[in-house]
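Can anyone check this?
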Amino acid sequence: MNTFDLSGKTALVTGSSRGLGRTFAEALAAAGAHVVLNGFDAARLEQTRKEMIEQGYDVSAAAFDVSDEAAVRAAFERFDAEGRTPDILVNNAGIQLRRPMLELSAADWQRVLDTNLTSAFLCGREAASRMIAKGGGKIINIGSLMSDLARVTVAPYTVAKGGVKMLTRSMAAEWAGSNIQANAIGPGYMMTDMTRPLQEDQDFDSWVRGRTPAGRWGKPEELQGAVIFLASSASDFVNGQILYIDGGMTAVL
């Protein structure tokens, strides 16, 4: 089990003040890593940091906009100065916008792509340049079952998550020779605050349960084993892959 031990490692988890990002942060901290929490809302991020410290986790916080190139570069320079350059990067930050494409503005399209996809490129580039110098590292991008499948009214999200899959493969192609493992996790329909309106929609809830071979929604904690695996030495020969954790939804018609 020592291969899953993250003691002495530093992990940056973007978008981790709540939701799945916090779930990933708790898993990595429980495995021994120092976790740098990230979010855009400094007050909410600080509250999460305090709560996790009270739970016994080793965490710090860095509030910055992951879709802003200058802000990302400045944040990584601060990490360097503080001796907390990430060994592990989890690109989790994301937003959702539900709107038919005929009613979708170019600005909203770009906002979803910048938050869900461009941020992963910007943070990944900064992290990788430092990981190469250190002799290796782990990048975990958070995709979705929509990295492979589409649904109505979520076109920019689907495009962004499809891009995350190919960005992951591109990272592996360019950086595997430098001992960087870049992989992705593709969650299915999970029970989070973001999906609560869908859970409460009887028709949608019935569709999810009927479409998923497991017959239910996923629980956030069911993603924790995967993020520990991909962040640890247990995955040292795994590269460019996307692990779907969706109760079998992407496996069936």
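Reply from J.R.: I decoded it. The chain has a mean pLDDT of 97.
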